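Hi P.,

Sorry for the delay on this. The queue was packed all week, but I finally got your sequence through. Input first:
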Amino acid sequence: MKLLNNILIIGFTLLLYNCSVPKKENKIVKEVKTGYPISPVNIQNVKLTDEFWLPIIKRVQEKTIEYAIAKCEEEGRFDNFLIAGKKMEGTVKGAMPFDDSDVYKIIEGASNSLISAPNKPLEKLLDSLIGIVKIGQESDGYLTTWRTINPAKPPAPWVKVNEGKRWEFLFMSHELYNAGHMYEAAAVHFEATGKRNFLDIALKNADLMVKTFGEGEGKIHAVPGHQIIESGLIKLYQITKNEAYLNLSKYFLDNRGNPENHELYGAYSQDHIPVIEQDEVVGHAVRAVYMYAAMTDIAAIKKDSAYSSAVQKLWNNMVDKKMYITGGIGARHDGEAFGENYELPNLTAYNETCAAIGDVYWNHRLHNFSGDVKYYDVIERTLYNGLISGLSLDGTNFFYPNALESDGVYKSNRGSCTRQSWFDCSCCPTNVIRFIPSIPGLIYSKTNDEIYVNLYASNEATIDLENNKIQISQQTNYPWNGEVVITLKPEKESEFTLKLRVPGWARNQVLPSDLYSYSVTSKMQPTITINGKKVAAAIKDGYFELKRNWKKEDKIELNFPMEVRTVKANDKIEDDRGKLSLEYGPLVYAIEEIDNPNFDKITVSTSDEFKVQKEAILDGVNTVSNNKLKAIPYYAWSNRGVGKMKVWIQEKSNN
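Then the structure:
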């Protein structure tokens, strides 16, 4: 990554802070045990060569990270740490109490980049950013810059203050939210570099949290307003094995909905009833999925059946009644929230990019817990559609909400009809930065003697099983076609199980629920060959499961036949009645006015025939067309100016 000429971060900070940090008492474990029966294969062991995903990841690494650093410098994100540490004069800069977290998320995304591709200049830049963070930390570990600078004057008017003390108005102060993102980023940075400079900042803060919150005399009985500290504490526990971090995480979860612990924040913050009694996804969608991810961690680590039961009920409600066809979640702009069951409007859909990211984190944990294919069906749908739609093709413009329809007038994206270059509330751009470089870590997972191939993308990977080391490669043009070639090179000939996911769309399932369905059941069947010979492998629980004695250069060829499919929604979704949407493979398609002069008159029917062809538009996509319309992948919409768009198209009767 090019270092920014207009930011003197490196030289300035290294003068202020020596990045070498003395060792702390917290013991660091050599191998992190997550508590899950299935382990993801780390991105450091997966080299992506894919023509679809690699350009997106490189765009973030080469453009978006640098762009976000410049924006953070411009808006005073870094200055706040220096002002808090009395190395600079001034008042709080920025408009949000969680601006600190944007810096942490940039560090996390850049650290994920370092894991997959070592880069000394980038590592040096991160040392500088971490040095700035260190300056803002108080001597006892406290770190929320706006409150250190002037606790009586929060940057946002909706953060209420009374006495101007720490931990006041936790419902919206975001002190614990900032900490959670710091812990998550510090864990990834430590994994990427082995350095403790950021980790020790996080551990010092976490130790303060343990002293401050929980059961016991003199401690504060409260929970965070915006969840994420729970999963962040668990990450620190997994690194250090310090049970106090795990216990505090569970304390924060256990006491949501407990009026004897604190004044309840209500359903907006999932704080209306105890978490193990919750069976409907409600309130702020990002807060919700971050909480559900941490609950899944507790279910796995503690083998807690009450938590396990609750997250399954919540997941069922979301996927059965509250998920968009793009994998997006959160129907309402008001409160950035889930709506009622089947409340899924298109023009006013919220579908925050952060919520899509949080939902992938949650579903990944659920798969690691159970191995159930349905969680990856949701992950794939979200990744290819409602998540990457949040980032423009130039890497410097962003959707905060992701609508499924545009009239070219309604300003769905926080005052804009299209993507914006930045927001005063910049959580989504920086969340994209932290997430997208980690995508290779979603492709494979494993047990002692099983390899799960969960996503299809060209790559070279090394996977350690209990008694063998396997080199595995994929060659594919997915999602533009469904042909995949997998080559295995085990270190030694041995028996193990390979589980190859058959995507939900190839099993005639839109989502693992009845919320959406294909108008016509496809008769085309996935096929598999091994070393050129067709194998009559049955699909078991959504996977081709192959247990055999694998040899070097064994070659597997998969074919998931793709065709344009029309999709109908459950009739209970009012906005989608009498309409159809188009899909091709894992991609949801949309029509834009720029391609369709007759936009308002377009109809489709279940008997329509379509042509699929690669076009040199939108960085190269497969378009879907016939004599009535031309459709593009939904994720690429609004990259050619403001105009009308829709995913759900009026159905024309075949009669």
